[in-house]
Design goal:
Layout: E1 4-8, E2 29-30, E3 33-34, H1 35-45, E4 50-55, H2 60-65, H3 70-78, H4 82-89, E5 97-102, H5 109-114, H6 117-120, E6 125-128, E7 132-135, H7 142-153, E8 156-162, E9 172-176, E10 185-193, E11 204-212, H8 216-222, H9 233-241, E12 246-250, E13 254-257, H10 261-273, H11 279-288
Parallel strand pairs: 1-4, 1-6, 4-5, 8-12
Antiparallel strand pairs: 2-3, 6-11, 7-13, 8-11, 9-10, 10-12
Helix pairs in contact: 8-9
Length: 292
């Protein structure tokens, strides 16, 4: 069973400047909680019990958010603000632990994952990019389905979503023989990074969720620097594909790229209108906007 998740949070968030100059981009709030909390909850919902943050010296706020704050908790209890107290003490279930390791230099996603090697050990694991929020409206969430498929087939899973044909040159696109139905996996023949529209093998772009075997760590150790002089996870996946099958899992939910400003605003709108206590008032505010 897969119980470990690696979350690379060491990036500087340049796409989100100036907000990310002093605040970790992962801590920018979507409605009433930081973006990374949604990603961690997604992992927990899929059965993950060990969250490994690959972090940077400037990202202490990320670790602090998942730690206990006894002074704040005592203050809320003394003021009988029990609802708020429950909100901050129930961020993580008791059986889930947070472990932080440092990425000493910005050497790419593959390097960030490799930094978690000593904690991952010989276990299979998932990688979740914290910039990407995934909203599932059904009970059977995409990450859960990916892990179930991995357990059944022992085949690495790469989450993908369909994008408009004219946008394929902005993404990593998977090469598959047939486009699967949503919620299904299909054998992957490769990944093409930002292909020209007429050369794209499909319209399925890599989303930022991976279920990987432990052996990927040994491949990352041998992966040379690639694009941007960084160690790329996709290069290690290509090496894995030389000996092992890899499947593309087509997601059912909706993605929000919170690393970009427009993607973040879109996330705030969607999560805001469905917020259990703020949603109705938020929808009324939107209707009252004079956009003429």
């Amino acid at each position: 069973m897969i119980k470990k998740a690696v979350l690379p949070v060491a990036g500087l968030g340049t796409r989100f400047l100036p907000a990310s100059k002093a605040i970790p981009k992962e801590m920018v709030t979507v409605v009433d909680r930081p973006a990374i909390e949604y990603v961690v909850k997604e992992a927990v919902q899929a059965g993950i019990t060990e969250i490994i943050l690959v972090t940077h010296s400037s990202k202490g706020a990320v670790e602090n958010h998942f730690d206990r704050n006894f002074e704040l908790e005592t203050t809320l209890e003394n003021k009988k603000k029990y609802d708020l107290l429950a909100e901050i003490t129930n961020i993580l279930p008791d059986n889930v632990s947070i472990i932080a390791v440092r990425q000493p230099a910005p050497l790419g996603l593959g390097h960030a994952v490799l930094c978690a090697k000593s904690v991952v050990g010989d276990d299979d694991f998932v990688v979740l990019l914290p910039d990407v929020l995934i909203k599932n409206n059904d009970v059977d969430h995409d990450l859960t389905r990916m892990i179930e498929r991995f357990n059944e087939s022992e085949t690495a899973q790469i989450m993908v979503e369909a994008v408009p044909d004219h946008l394929v040159d902005q993404y990593g696109i998977v090469d598959v023989e047939l486009v699967p139905e949503e919620g299904q996996s299909i054998m992957m023949q490769g990944i093409v990074e930002k292909p020209a529209v007429h050369d794209a093998p499909s319209n399925l772009s890599v989303v930022g969720r991976y279920v990987l075997p432990a052996k990927i760590m040994k491949l990352l150790e041998k992966t040379p620097k690639g694009a941007g002089s960084e160690i790329q996870l996709t290069d290690a996946i290509a090496m894995l594909q030389e000996t092992d099958a890899i499947e593309a899992y087509r997601m059912q939910g909706q993605t929000f790229d919170c690393g970009s400003k427009l993607g973040y605003l879109k996330a705030v709108l969607h999560y805001g209108i469905e917020h259990p206590t703020l949603g109705d008032d938020f929808k009324s505010m939107i209707k009252d906007l004079d956009l003429s």
